Amino acid sequence: MTAAITLQDCQALDRDDPLAPFRDRFDLPDGVIYLDGNSLGVLPKATRARLQQVVAQEWGTDLIRSWNAHGWITLPQRVGALIAGVIGAEPDEVVAADSTSVNLFKLIAAAVRMRPGRRVILSEPGNFPTDLYMVQGLAELLGGQVELRLVERDRIADALTDEVALLLLTHVHYKTGAIHDMRGLTERAHAAGALTLWDLSHSAGALELSLSADGADLAVGCGYKYLNGGPGAPAFLYVAKRHQDAVRQPLSGWMGHAAPFAFTDAYEPAPGMARQLCGTPSILALSALEEGVRVMADAHMGAVRAKSRRMGDLFLALVEQRLPGTFGIACPRDSARRGSQVSLTHGEGYAIVQALIARGVVGDFRAPDVLRFGFTPLYLRHTDVWYAVDNLAAVMAGQEYTERRFRDRAVVT
Ligand SMILES: *Cc1c(COP(=O)(O)O)cnc(C)c1O
């Protein structure tokens, strides 16, 4: 039997942690252990100052001149280039714009146009709802030209037939944290003549990605999760350079036009990634996102991933040590196959999460029974993991979750 893990072990890991200095770049509330950075990342200190500057100077004083003077007009590309560094893409393969849902619509529609004669969008049951809903909306719009086909993850490779236009997958599953083999599935998709669209919402800023090397065609992802861009931050989209001039997305707004300020009647898509834009970008939101991504871009992704795996393993080991047999485990135990989260299951999951939040340990709940804990290496310590499990043990020992006030479901879980 291996020796029990102690608080001192966790303190030693913190002393040796090369990422420890990053914690000071975030504004963390007192008395909170925040294990929900996979849903809404915390506020970087630089963001507060940046927003004050943008509001007071750029908007408040310089007004319309700021589109040129402060480079507002190229902010989607600048933030995109920063994100590209985090996901293993070229700087001119990514732009920041719109929401993940809207970007999914643009790229799913574009992919269907790029594979005439094929109507199947292949995905998996239990994929993040918006990914499936956006395909359903497009299928309704286009009538019989699009069919959403869902197959279980272990059968995806075999389901890549010559009917498939697009393989649409979330790289790290939002509920289980399971990672898809991006390179392997992309190869299979290409062999079948299909394109791939990866949703990186739980991957960007969480693990090492190499979109270019893996041959990915298209991707989207969230700005407000591991990239710390703020609530409702703009999302990003990626198009491999080889496809950029063939991709025609249907939301042909003027910001994607080749010459927006020529004000001509006929739409002509801009070259490169600019055609992925639609309307006027939200400058306040993009400015906040830029600061969030900048912190991430300063960190070595290999170190981020190593610490993320270590924290997830530590959490699972401590749960087994302190609460043997209490929870089911809904994520891969092998950290190489797991994103930056741990998912436990329990019939009282919702109330347990609420009782933990009342103790200052913030995780979240995903129906029907998943307790989800995200590990964000830039601002969490190994001792936070220790105290999180310590609080979980107290919630279970005192049956705190049976209290009435923890049982009423709020709108957002
Ligand atoms: C969070 C998340 C989204 C969110 O999409 P929005 O348009 O920002 O609401 C999309 N896909 C996945 C996989 C997510 O985890």
Report on the structure:
With 413 residues, the chain is an alpha/beta fold. The protein has 13 helices and 13 strands. It has 2 domains: 7-42 and 300-406, Aspartate Aminotransferase, domain 1; 71-297, Type I PLP-dependent aspartate aminotransferase-like (Major domain) (Aspartate Aminotransferase, domain 2, 3-Layer(aba) Sandwich). The model has no long low-confidence stretch (mean pLDDT 97). The structure holds pyridoxal-5'-phosphate. Residues 99-101, 128, 130-131, 170, 174, 199, 201-202, 222, 235 line the site of pyridoxal-5'-phosphate.
Features:
single chain; 413 residues; alpha/beta; Aspartate Aminotransferase, domain 1; Aspartate Aminotransferase, domain 2; 2 domains; 7-stranded mixed sheet; 4-stranded antiparallel sheet; 13 strands; binds pyridoxal-5'-phosphate
Short summary of the structure?
The chain has 413 residues and is of the alpha/beta class.
Which helices and strands occur, and which strands form pairs?
Elements: H1 7-15, E1 33-34, H2 45-59, H3 66-69, H4 75-87, E2 94-97, H5 100-114, E3 120-123, H6 129-142, E4 147-150, H7 156-159, E5 164-170, H8 182-191, E6 195-199, H9 211-214, E7 218-221, E8 235-239, H10 283-298, H11 301-322, E9 328-329, E10 341-345, H12 349-358, E11 361-362, E12 364-366, E13 370-374, H13 382-397
Parallel strand pairs: 1-11, 3-4, 3-5, 5-6, 6-7
Antiparallel strand pairs: 2-8, 7-8, 9-10, 10-13, 12-13
Helix pairs in contact: 1-13, 2-10, 4-10, 5-6, 11-13
This protein binds pyridoxal-5'-phosphate.
